[in-house]
Every structure is written in structure tokens, then in C-alpha cells.
């Protein structure tokens, strides 16, 4: 793992967290391909890291973005109408979803469309992360869905159409497998990673031109972009 340097653009911890999540996906994909050729089932329990890392990266991104904007104004001894608002967002214990709602409204008078992706997926991912970190052991018969997966089931069975969502996962979470197996799916981990990337991309689409240019360059330079999956083997295609 490369060293994290807190200087210039390298201080963006959110990008490093996304890169770590992508690394987990790449390694899991390799194991699954080997297991598929040998007619075995791959052990993919480390995919749990992806959900936590991506959710953490989104929280880090919005916090780091606010801090950078504040530092820009303060370093020039300037003022901005949104300065106090961003400082409150940073200083107060505000839920991460509320931060993502407030910042674009405050800076650019724009907002996410919460009726569709990527916001709906982001909402599910945060609920999923919270359920995993505050997990309560459940013993359920086949066909019963544990609470921590209920948010995903609701998303997959909603009327909103999105071909990037792992719809076959509904069969997995209703199966009789253990709770770890139910959630350790390459398709679902890919969905979580893509949700993180899509949220940042959507945020930048709401931003001013200068902000979008700076952060788009940062994402591209770090090799962060959405990934796709094959259908037959669950192959995860990723940039080299």
C-alpha cells in the first residue's frame, strides 16, 4: 500500500479509501475467476471492506471538500456568504446524508435529485454501512431477509430502473446462506463502489466549472472511475 501524504492534492483521504476499495474488488475478482475455472466457490468475505470503505470515503470527501473551501477563503483573508455555513457543517455532528444535501445548496444553489440514482443508492449504502457497524446477530430461516439487507431489497424491488444495480442479488439475500455469504457478492460490491464514484461525479456536475475541473482531474489522475462486471462468471472488469 502506498504512503498517504498530506500535502497538496495528496491530502484527499477519500480518494485513497476508494483506491483501497477498488483493490479489494480486484483481488476478489481474481479469486472468483480461479474458483470458477476449478468449479469451486470463492471465499469473498473481505468484500465487507468495500461497503465500509466506500461509505467512509464519501464522508471523508464532503468533509475534506468543505475544509478546503474554508481554507481557500481564510488563507486569502477573505469572506464568503457560505463560509459560516460550511464551518457549521464541519464543526457540528451532522449526519453524512445531510452534509451532501446542504453543501451544493449552500455553494451553488443546486441539489441532488433524491428520487433517483445515485442518491437512492447512496442512501441505501449508508443504511447498509450503519447496519453492518451496529450489527445485531439474527438467526433467520430461508426466505427471511435480515434487517441490514432490507434497504437493498427495497431498492432492488422499487419501480426505479437502473441497469447498473445487481438485481439478481434479491435471490441471494433471500437464500438460506449465512449472513456473510448473503452480502459478499462481487456484483453488490461493484454496485457499492460505483455508487461512491457516481455520487462524487454528480456532486461535481452541480459544482462550478473551476471546482469540477480540479476534482475531475484528481479522480482521473487517481484512476478512480466506475467499473463494470461480466455476466457469466461475475468477472469484474477494471482499469489496469
Given helix and strand content, the structural type is mainly alpha
Using the CA coordinates, give the radius of gyration. Answer: 19 Å
Overall number of domains: 1
Strand order of the largest sheet: 1-2
What number is the mean pLDDT? 79
Low-confidence stretches: 1-10, 231-240
State the end-to-end CA separation.
16 Å
| Overall 3D shape | globular
Number of alpha- plus pi-helical segments: 10
Percent of residues in beta strands? Answer: under 5%
Order of helices and strands: HHHHHHHHHHEE
Largest beta-sheet characterization: 2 strands, antiparallel
Characterization of the model:
It is built from ten helices and two strands. It has helices spanning 13-37, 48-75, 83-91, 96-108, 119-133, 147-156, 169-173, 179-183, 186-206, 209-221, and strands spanning 228-229, 236-237. A hairpin with a 6-residue loop joins strand 1 (228-229) and strand 2. The protein has 240 residues and is mainly α. It starts with 12 loop residues before the first helix and ends with a strand. The longest helix is centred in the first third of the chain and has 28 residues, at 48-75. Helix 2 (48-75) runs antiparallel to helix 3. The protein has a two-stranded antiparallel ribbon. The model is unreliable at 1-10 and 231-240 (pLDDT under 50). It has one domain.
Task: Produce the secondary structure layout.
Elements: H1 13-37, H2 48-75, H3 83-91, H4 96-108, H5 119-133, H6 147-156, H7 169-173, H8 179-183, H9 186-206, H10 209-221, E1 228-229, E2 236-237
Antiparallel strand pairs: 1-2
Helix pairs in contact: 1-2, 1-9, 2-3, 2-4, 2-9, 5-6, 5-9, 9-10
Amino acid at each position: 500500500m502506498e504512503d498517504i501524504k498530506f500535502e497538496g492534492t495528496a491530502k484527499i483521504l477519500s480518494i485513497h479509501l476508494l483506491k483501497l476499495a477498488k483493490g479489494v474488488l480486484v483481488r476478489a475478482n481474481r479469486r472468483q475467476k480461479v474458483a470458477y475455472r476449478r468449479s469451486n466457490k470463492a471465499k469473498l468475505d473481505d468484500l465487507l471492506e468495500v461497503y465500509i470503505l466506500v461509505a467512509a470515503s464519501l464522508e471523508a470527501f464532503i468533509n475534506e471538500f468543505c475544509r478546503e473551501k474554508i481554507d481557500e477563503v481564510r488563507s486569502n483573508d477573505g469572506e464568503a456568504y457560505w463560509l459560516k455555513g460550511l464551518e457549521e457543517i464541519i464543526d457540528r455532528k451532522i449526519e453524512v446524508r445531510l452534509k451532501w444535501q446542504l453543501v451544493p445548496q449552500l455553494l451553488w444553489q443546486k441539489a441532488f435529485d433524491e428520487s433517483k440514482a445515485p442518491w437512492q443508492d447512496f442512501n441505501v449504502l449508508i443504511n447498509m454501512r450503519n447496519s453492518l457497524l451496529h450489527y445485531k446477530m439474527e438467526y433467520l430461516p430461508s426466505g427471511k431477509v435480515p434487517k441490514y439487507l432490507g434497504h437493498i431489497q427495497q431498492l432492488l424491488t422499487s419501480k426505479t430502473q437502473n441497469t447498473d444495480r445487481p438485481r439478481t442479488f434479491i435471490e441471494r439475500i433471500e437464500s438460506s446462506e449465512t449472513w456473510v455469504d448473503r452480502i459478499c457478492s462481487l456484483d453488490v460490491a461493484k454496485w457499492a463502489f460505483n455508487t461512491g464514484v457516481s455520487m462524487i461525479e454528480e456532486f461535481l456536475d452541480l459544482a462550478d466549472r473551476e471546482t469540477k475541473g480540479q476534482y475531475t482531474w484528481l479522480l482521473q489522475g487517481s484512476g478512480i472511475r466506475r467499473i463494470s462486471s461480466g455476466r457469466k462468471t461475475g468477472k469484474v472488469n477494471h482499469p489496469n
